Amino acid sequence: MLKSLLRVGRSLIAIAVFLACPHAINAQVAPTNSATIAGSVTDSAGKPVAGAKITLNGPQNATTQTNAQGQFTFVGVPFGAYQISAAAAKLGTATRVISVEGDINVAIEYEAPLSGLKVIANVSTSANARFNVTATSITQVNPQAKAFEGEGNWRKIIEQIPGVSQVGLGQGQTTFAAWPDSPQAPVMVSLNGTLPYETATLLDDMPLIGSSRANGTAGFGTDLSAYSLNAFGVADIVRGPGASAPSIVNSIGGSFVLHAPSMVSHNRYEFSVSNDAYGGWVANGLGALRWGKLSAVATYGFNNSPGPLNQYGTPPHVNAIGSSGGAPYTINGQYVLCTGACATTTLLSPNYASSSFPSIGNQSGLVLCCVPQLSAWTEHSGSAALVYAISPAVTGEAFYSGLASFQPLPYQNYTFNFTPPSGYVGSFPAGTSYLEGAGYLLGPGTVGQGSSLFEEKVTAQLGRGLLRIEALQNRDTQTESLLLPPNGPLSVQLFGGAGLCPTTPCTAANATPTVFNGGTYTVNYPQLNVAQLNQSYNRDWLVSYATPIGDYIHTGASFVKSYYNIPQFLYETIGPPLSTTVSLYTSGAISQTTNELRLFVGGNPTPKTSLDVSMYLTNAAYHVGAAVTNPTFTDSFYSYSAPRLGFVWRPTTSLAARVSAGGGFAEVPLNDLVGSNGTPTLNAVANVYTQTLTNTNLQPEKSFGFDVGTDVRLEGGMLFSFDVYRTNLFGQLYKSTTTSGTFNGLPLEVTQFGNIGQSRYEGLLLDVRHEVSRGLFWSFAGGLTRGYVVKLPAGFYNTATGTCNVTTGANCQNVAIIPGINFNGEFPAVSNAAAVIPYAQALGTIGYRSSDFGRLDLVGTYYGNNNTYLQPAFIEWDGHLSVPLSKNVALLATLRNVTNVYGSSIQTFATSTISGAPTITGLPYPLYGEQYGPRALILTSQVRF
Fold first, then answer.
1. Predicted pLDDT at 372
2. In terms of residue numbers, what domain contains 805?
3. Are 221 and 252 in contact (CB under 8 A)?
4. The domain spanning residue 82 has which CATH number?
5. Do 59 and 191 share a structural domain?
6. Would the CA dihedral through 421, 423, 428, 430 be positive or negative?
7. Could you tell me if residue 29 is inside a domain?
8. Per the domain annotation, does 768 fall within a domain?
9. In Å, what is the CA distance from 476 to each residue of 178, 301, 308, 759, 779?
10. Torsion sign across C-alpha atoms 230, 236, 239, 242
11. Quick one: which H or E segment has residue 936?
């Protein structure tokens, strides 16, 4: 407990120091996505109408009255479609559907058909309008704007928001590596400390579900890298248990909501082109057109780069290592000493083995030098959004976004202690070097990723209410191909030693120890042919209706149906010295359907308060097709219901206090539930067989949480926001893996998923900013977050063979799950997308803005201990200078990672430890720190007209 308090104290001190430094004050997190609607009501003669009741129905419901001059104001109106009504005695009611969106400052004029009651409403989303009066903590980001500033992926958008993490770049995984700036680097969102599959990703209130290169299947969190950055002008980060949340499914920590472009008010065109950190190009174009009732927005972008290896050439840290998984089959026709199952080759007998990490299981005393490596990537993306005002009360919309990207297979790099054998005199130095640990990726492997996203939506005034009907079709695809040897034998330089035999099998008894001092040799690799296709089909539809009842109450219902499945095909052939063919899954393997009904009612108990109550009724059905061999699994059905409550008190137009509370529901990821109870699968690298068993008692996670906060608007453009939250999670999933006997003479690792008793997410968030259209601006945002286990089931650490001995480690399992320890890269290990809950995060900006185009700023991002990079606490700095060259053209210079902290782009998996882990034998478990990416000067030319 004392260590935990000291750790939190250090984090608080770090944030305090960060805040105290004027050059370290906050950043580019956009203010809350809200608007001001101000207007007036007059009669047919133009005389102001005092006391008219103005009602707003939509994502936020509010009621006010006009003053003596016939004027009214709504502040803090969240973006979305609204019905605005003005009612006056003897003059009737004037009603209109309006759209509140980003980048808008328009006047809407309409009148009652018979009486002539006229309403003029000015909708503004200026900086002063962005003041949250909802019951939920909301932050708005602008992915499109980041794309036009030269960003090639979602990473910075997510990680620069305290309380929010991006998961997927590596996060302790050994199954996937990615270059930090690659468009295929997986990015999944974690809100308020929750796991990615506990955070809902939505498109206009419909679940957006896709598979991920981080884990290969769907259900573990939506990978944003599959979706175009430039297609979405607005995205909402909705934290906590908002009462008006569109869904509680997978919304333990909140929801990340993407929005398609809505109707534009005027024509505009944008274009930008940037270099990237490696000499490649990022370009984006946009056209927004308005023809009367029709609005159209189209975008196109490409990202083309040689990647980091072409920049750095082939220094030692990208040479191919002769190791388990990457050894040659023959050298100059001689067979290489083979151990283990010989699916791949371990090069050396114990006499020649150098030290290595036991957790990886590789041995290396032989280095293959100067084999060219490729890292170039290319991505093309585009989108189109059409909005048509069918009538003043009906609007139809269609949105399409598509993306395709390709790159060579990324690979992992491990730290090896190269210890050559006796007699070695080669020029490659002994000692620790960063070298490729997965040499079998020498072949021409290709990874493809793509998505096709199509949405249709109709919004209509029906009576006094607002009707919405939406449909979503979402297809996400990843492909992978690999062929070895690439073009027959390879000619390489060899350093170190190995045992060689003239015939096979090559054993220690007949192997001749051979020393290599840098000469050129011909090597052959075991034949390897892999073709893999992962797909996720996601189809949703939504219908909702909200209507006012009287002047102060609104009610309604919404229904969301979501379906997805994972047709997956894997074909793998490994040639000599071992021949194996593997095929896994075919079309329609496993699928899931979710239904959710929401009933809601709300209103204004007083002119200064609002209250919203929602009841959610959900169910999830899992289906396994005949193509999956699993004799113990049967189709499953789960249901759950929970309420949510939101209350806001607005004593003045510049102060809002809020509280929200309610339940949540996280589905079991598909593969966790189904398992793979058929024949165990060989892990050729680790020389073990693996099997995942079905747990027929596995249950979805259920939660109850609250958020208390306030927003204050101060004089001079100052905004202040503060939140405290806690969520108790019951039945959180965990993965238990133990060695259970042998299979085909090799160890058999058995994995099964289960439910933990109780876990908890908690934290606090602070955001203060000074936003101006001209002059000095600054901001600071910081947060402290914890995620930890509270209660464990009885006998949780015991194995089937006995009671866990915490001193010796005998009969112990699940020892990575420790109550009270902040979640990190090893826990709960429910999927490869590991949980990394930063203790502390902060973001600061200080800058000067001379115009829409002209600005100078310095941005600092603080990553506290237990950060998503699994590195010690650090600060990363960016600088921006935007210079107007003309009215419509500007040049933006970005100096990224000014101090070059963790600046390599080569993922090197070096071990670290779990902070605060107890002394159970086997701990600390190895974790693998990530690299942030290199210092780089990015120049962007921006054109707008």
1. 64
2. 137-302+380-407+447-481+530-944
3. no
4. 2.60.40.10
5. no
6. positive
7. no
8. yes
9. 19, 19, 27, 32, 37
10. negative
11. strand 936-944
- End position of a domain, from candidates 90, 109, 127: 127
pTM of this structure? 0.82
* Residue among 923, 870, 821, 823 at smallest CA distance from 3: 821
Q: What is the token pair recorded at 71? A: 């004027």
pLDDT tens-place string over residues 315-347:
333 344 444 445 677 889 888 775 433 333 333
Residue 46 sits in the same domain as residue 66: yes
173 and 61, same structural domain?
A: no
CB 743 within 8 A of CB 772: no
Strand partners, 788: 760
What contacts 24+ positions apart, CB below 8 Å, involve 424-429? 424/495, 424/496, 424/497, 424/515, 424/516, 424/517, 425/517, 426/495, 426/496, 426/516, 426/517, 426/518, 427/495, 427/517, 427/518, 428/316, 428/367, 428/369, 428/495, 428/496, 428/518
Q: Kindly report the CATH number assigned to the domain that includes residue 693.
A: 2.40.170.20
Instruction: Tell me which DSSP letter residue 802 carries.
Output: B
Cα separation, 270 vs 149, in Å, equals: 11
Amino acid at 876: E
- With respect to residue 13, please indicate whether it lies within any of the assigned structural domains: no
Q: How many CA atoms lie within 13 A of 457 on its CB side?
A: 28
Query: Strand 609-624 vs strand 636-652: parallel, antiparallel, or unpaired?
Result: antiparallel
Quote the tokens at residue 242.
């908002």
Closest CA to 714 of 763, 771, 670, 662: 771
Give me 229's structure tokens.
């950055």
Number of domains composing the chain: 3
d(CA 257, CA 222): 12
Q: Same domain for 722 and 601?
A: yes
pLDDT band per the 50, 70, 90 thresholds, residue 415: low
Residues 478, 213 contacting (CB under 8 angstroms): yes
Q: Which residues pair with 497 in a beta bridge?
A: 515
Q: Is 315 within the bounds of a domain?
A: no
Residue 247: helix, strand or coil by DSSP? coil
Do residues 627 and 587 lie in contact, with contact meaning Cβ atoms separated by under 8 Å? yes
Amino acid at 242: G
pLDDT at residue number 938 = 95
Do 179 and 240 sit in the same domain of this protein? yes
CB of 837 within 8 A of CB of 760?
no
Instruction: Give strand pairing partners of 876.
Output: 861
Q: How much is the pLDDT for 436?
A: 53
Q: The tokens of 766 are what?
A: 């602070």
Mean pLDDT across the chain: 75
Whether residue 719 is predicted with pLDDT greater than 60 in this model: the reply is yes
In this structure, the answer to whether residues 858 and 915 fall within a common structural domain is yes
- In contact, 890 and 901? CB cutoff 8 Å: no
Of 783, 648, 651, 707, which is closest to residue 137 (Cα–Cα)? 707
Of 98, 127, 156, the last residue of a domain is 127
Distance, C-alpha 506 to centroid of its chain: 47
Nearest C-alpha neighbor of 561 from the set 534, 542, 580, 578: 542
Q: What is the pLDDT of residue 808?
A: 73
**CB-CB neighbours of 728 under 10 Å:** 15
CA pair distance 252, 700, nearest whole angstrom: 12
Contact, 834 vs 214, CB < 8 A?
A: no
Amino acid identity, position 683: N
pLDDT digits (tens, 9 = 90+) for 193-237: 888 888 889 998 899 887 665 554 545 778 888 899 999 987 888
Residues 737 and 877 in one domain: yes
646: number of Cβ within 10 Å = 25
Name the more confident of 295 and 50: 295
Around 820, how many Cα atoms within 13 Å sit in the side-chain half-sphere? 10
Confidence of residue 827 (pLDDT cuts 50, 70, 90): very low
Any residues with CB less than 8 A from the CB of 939 and at least 6 apart, and which?
Answer: 274, 275, 891, 892, 893, 894
Same structural domain for residues 793 and 867?
A: yes
Segment 533-562 shows an average pLDDT of: 85
Reported as half-sphere exposure (CB side, CA atoms, 13 A), residue 758 has a value of 7
